[in-house]
Structures are given as C-alpha cells and as structure tokens.
Design a protein that fits this description.
single chain, alpha/beta, 9-stranded mixed beta sheet, 15 helices, 42% helix, globular, binds iron/sulfur cluster
C-alpha cells in the first residue's frame, strides 16, 4: 500500500546521489551492514571506578579505535566480538546518566537533576513520555517507512511550531517503559520499517533514554536522530558513532532570527558544530524549512555554509511547507505561507551555490 502512496520511496533506492551520500544507511536497510549501536555493543570498554574526566578521555580515545573497527567489520575483515561484558555503548549510557543528574544535554545547560525529578526549560524529567509512535510515510523518500517516535518536550520555543501541542506539553503523553519501546522497534523492523526515527519536540532531552533503548533492541534497524540541532557539545560526542543518520534542522542563518523566533541564543554555533560532527561520525540529511522573508538573512547563508563546509553532495531537503501554527501571528512575516516567488528564488539560490543533492 505505502509503495503506491509513495513510489518515490522505491525510486530513491536507485538514486545515485542519494545512495552515495547515505551509502552505509542503505546497506543497513538491506542487512549488508550492522547499525552502529549493534557494533557499539560488541566493542569492549572497561570504565568501572573511573571519574567523569577519565571516562570522557577513555570514550574519546575509544571512538577513534571504534571507527577503525567499523571499517574492518563492514569490509568483512573482522567479526564482531559478542563477548564484551562492558561495552562502548555501556560507557555512553553511563556518561549520559551522569549528564541527566546535572542536565547539559542541550545548549541551555540548565544543570538540574532530572533523575531526582527536577525540570527546567524543556520540562522533561527522568520519565519517557510519548505522544505517538507509528510507521511514518510523510518523511523523506529514503526514510519511508520510518518507525517514528514522538516524545514530549523541546529545547527550543519556535513560535510557529507545527508540533506545539507536544513540544510545549499541552498534552502529557503516555509514559513508556524503555523495554517496550525497544520491542516496538524490533517489531517495526520485522514488518519492513527502514529505521527508528527519534523525534519530538526534540529527542535531545531523552538522549540517555534512547541510548538505553538501543541497548535493548535486537533487530538490525538504523537509528535516525531527528533534531533541531540545538544540542550541546557533550551530546554531540555521545551521538558520535551511535546515530546512523543525523536528520538535522538548519533553521536560521544568524542568531538574531534564532533568538527572535525560537528563543535560541548561540543557535549558529551549536548548529554548525553539530553538523560538522554529524558529517564526521555518521551520515547526514539536512532539513531547511524556508520561512517567508527569511531568504537573504537565513536561507542564503545556510546553503553557502553547507556547500563550503559539508560539500555539494550532502543530502538537503529544502522544505516549502511552512504554515503558520501556534503563536506564529506574533511574528509579522510568519503570518502567511511562502509565495511562489520565494520558492523560485530559493531553488535558484540552491543551484547557484552549487548544491547537487537537494530535494524540495
Ligand atoms: S535538555 Fe536542555 S532544556 Fe532540558 S533540562 Fe537539559 S539542558 Fe535544560
């Protein structure tokens, strides 16, 4: 049925540019390679009795060795060792747990102890509240069908947020045991879903939970980290060599727009850094939601930066579906949808700067 609804999800399997930019992801879909979390489970890491600084040092050293390990297993020159009692994935989980006790998962660095139930900007504590989880057919063609989990809460306040009821806690969600989420992911993979798509709100407040879920998953399902890109440097390091695909928003071309519309200081710093880490440690799809009257201040500098720093071949989804939601009427230029002139100009700029692998 979904093949008839979205034939582009089949055609994309033969799209050379897409396959080149997401080659490992495509191999996981066809079980030719293992999702990174499965390999992390087999990579030994002894960290008992270490303090935080020692654990981070060990983590960063092991990540370099792990990259070599992935290449060797991918090429068939090494078999994954199933005997690791304590793994690099366990080390990531322990580091994430310590962050949860003084939360710095995102750029806000609230430093609250969420394990003890404290909350701050995002409203998330130690629970795992889910709005919905289902097979998503509205994502990029290469992701469909995508087993998508929408958690509650967000690290930003985009006044035009289309998921405002879940990002801003207008609904409480259903509390899930992590084991149950893992079983649902296993079942989704068995029925043909191409990936586990972690979204919200934003998945960042739940990075510890997602790492734990991945430890409980049995099937070979690729992980898609679907985020607003406003996460901290430590989070970017925990995601490194864990997320198979980074599906990252690139929302603004400057901090003034990011603060005025999304209450997100230092967005440019976080967003550019996290895109660079994503390119280094995984595969990348970038989403740019084009906003009315934000072509010169945002769209142009974004695509110029992408071409200069990530290359012309990176996969980019230029999105024209902006619709005023939630409190968009508080921002005068966001009270309408894009017009055809803006759409044409955006495509012209994308071609001018040299983007070769973009879809609209
Ligand atoms: S995820 Fe961000 S907003 Fe939420 S508590 Fe942690 S630092 Fe604060």
């Amino acid at each position: 049925m979904w093949r008839a609804l979205r034939p582009d999800s089949i055609n994309v399997l033969y799209d050379e540019k897409c396959r080149k930019s997401l080659s490992r992801y495509f191999d996981i879909i066809f079980d030719k390679k293992l999702a990174k979390f499965k390999l992390l489970k087999t990579f030994p890491a002894e960290f008992q009795d270490m303090d935080n600084a020692e654990m981070w040092k060990l983590h960063n050293n092991l990540i370099k060795e792990f990259k070599t390990y992935v290449k060797e297993v991918d090429s068939g020159n090494r078999k994954p060792d199933e005997s690791a009692k304590s793994s690099l994935l366990d080390l990531k989980i322990e580091l994430a747990k310590r962050i949860l006790e003084r939360c710095t998962f995102c750029m806000r660095a609230c430093a609250v102890n969420r394990l003890k139930g404290e909350t701050k900007y995002c409203g998330c504590n130690s629970n795992f509240p889910v709005s919905t989880m289902f097979d998503h057919y509205g994502e990029e063609p290469e992701l469909i069908p995508s087993f998508t989990v929408f958690t509650i809460g967000c690290t930003m306040r985009c006044l035009h947020c289309q998921n405002w009821s879940i990002s801003q806690w207008y609904e409480p969600g259903t509390l899930y045991e992590l084991e149950k989420v893992a079983r649902q992911a296993d079942i989704a993979r068995a029925r043909g879903c191409r990936n586990l798509n972690m979204v919200g709100g934003d998945p960042t407040p739940y990075l510890y939970h997602w790492l734990k879920v991945s430890k409980m998953i049995n099937e070979n399902i690729s992980t898609v980290w679907n985020s607003n890109s406003y996460y901290s440097y430590p989070s970017s390091q925990l995601l490194a060599e864990w997320a198979d695909v980074y599906l990252l928003d690139f929302k603004y071309g400057n901090d003034d727009c990011a603060v005025r519309i999304s209450d997100a200081p230092k967005y440019w710093e976080a967003c550019t850094r996290n895109h660079l880490v994503a390119k280094e440690h995984g595969e990348l799809i970038i989403r740019i939601l084009v906003l009315p009257k934000h072509i010169d201040c945002c769209f142009r500098p974004i695509v110029e930066w992408i071409v200069k720093n990530l290359g012309k071949g990176v996969r980019v989804n230029v999105m024209f579906q902006y619709t005023p939601h939630w409190r968009a009427d508080e921002v005068p230029e966001l009270r309408r949808r894009l017009n055809s002139d803006e759409m044409e100009l955006t495509v012209k700029i994308a071609k001018e700067v040299g983007l070769e692998n973009f879809i609209t």
